[in-house]
Amino acid sequence: MKFYAKVTSNDLTKAxxxxxxxxxxxxxxxxxALQDGTKNIARGARQKVSQRTGKLKKSIKSGFDRxxxxxxxxxxxxxxxxxxxxxxxxIVRPKNKxxxxxxxxxxxxxxxxxxxxxxxxxPFIEPSFEAEELKIVSSMKKVLNK
Length: 146
Known about the structure:
Blueprint: H1 10-17, H2 24-48, H3 55-59, E1 60-65, E2 70-75, H4 80-85, E3 86-87, E4 90-92, E5 100-104, E6 107-111, E7 114-116, E8 119-120, H5 125-145
Antiparallel strand pairs: 1-2, 3-8, 4-7, 5-6
């Protein structure tokens, strides 16, 4: 799953565009603020995620690229986007066979189609980002004002 959340602060965008002009200490301070913020977003997402087995929670990872500088928070399970955004109801039909095989209560049932109900989204990454965004911006402004 990939989706991007961009910081909407014009001051921050202008500051990041001029990052090559900063001295080493300022650049390091900005990178550390972004990296700490990224880790906090991942931590918040792990706390907010609804869990049945814990697999989705364990798949939430964060990373940081110092060359850009850019932080990423991602969930690596193939169904993470469905939990985050939800899904519309739809009907599933077999692609290569005559029937679907459905396991129900220990027995196997064959069906021509299966109706998948609507699933409401239960966001965990986006609220974590929104909660941390102002903290990241203020910590970067502190570094820039020193």
